[in-house]
Amino acid sequence: MTQKLAGTKLDSWLIAIMLMAALPSIFVILTWDLDGVLSPGAYALRYFSIPITLGQILVVFLALRKNFSIFDILPNLHLALKTLLSIWFVFASVTVLFVADNKFLSAFATLQYALHGVFLAALIYLAKRSDLNHRDSLLEIFSLGAVAYIALLALFIIFIPDKESFPWVLRLPSGTNVRQIGYFSAILAIAPISLLLFGKTKSAMWCVIVSMIVMFISWTGSRGALVGLFIAPLIASLTIWRALPLRRAALLMISFVVGMGASLPLPAPAPDFGLVRMASSLSQEDLGSGRNYVWKTTITEIAKSPWIGHGSGTFRPTMKSLYGYGFNQPHQFMLQYVYDWGLLGGGAACLLLLMLFVTSLSRARKFNDASAFAGVSVLCIIAAIGSIDGALYYPMSIVLAATVVAFGFVNIGMSPETDQRGTS
Hints:
mainly alpha; 0% strand
């Protein structure tokens, strides 16, 4: 990787990826809190994901310096895409203005979603105009960012002064609970997994990194993250119509087994942690850990305002007052979007995600490398986890996934004319 980037000028795509690789670690440092007690300011920083939002804005600024303009891009979009974006914008605006109880909170949440879209467009804009001559070099940098993130969390865990009374499930840095941190790690793991399967070199290093991340996810007890991380490469390979290389696939399986096995001797700080927790939960009567009730009550509330929705950011206070639970989202992204923006606005948001997947899939079939595979895999894993949790609600998981998706849009090796014709 060093040789590939040696002597390369710091173009905006490289700067953006270096920033995104460092952003999870920056979030950990800024939310570092060893005593487990959050001040109001620290809570706001963490709950609203302010460092993540600032990172997105910086990337958009980098693109603006390269003549990026969302107003220039919109007229050139496919009619179906423009229609879906318009539907989402109308219903998202209507809910904020006329439905949402807390208009400021709802407006902030809605603007964050809009920023996610602009951020992805800016990343793709930079990726297509990069001067770098190797598609996978920056994917390696992003993978090393995953290592730094896990390492910092490990240091935090080691240095907690009062481990007996620390609120483990709710108070690790960068997330509002340990499950959230688990799927952040799973999304980050897609980059080294893709490099292990389809990278040119360093398979031993990627094996170690994948094992380390799997070990951490297993320690957190995040079932959805671990299962999603296992099935995402399989789904991606099937949709791309590319068989996984047998030797590399075997190394990936060994890395999974080693990572899960290495988590077993690690001390579980609370009953909610570890592989033992995952195994024991399978024997419980309620496999969904209360999700069935949350989904049922969410559908009940959707039925009260099916066309307009209730507004982003209103789920927690509404459901707390009506049903007594304080979840930030319904643990299912399609229900979340329809609750927020109604059947039309939420349906448009879901179709936009589907169109992104189809576009990424089309791009991936033109290239035979790790970056193409990563772009499809990360959409598979965020959709899989988002079907049972909040991966498509929290800014950090969305931003990490969007960054990996953008790797599949690097045009190195193709002229713009060739790219437009859709041939390699």
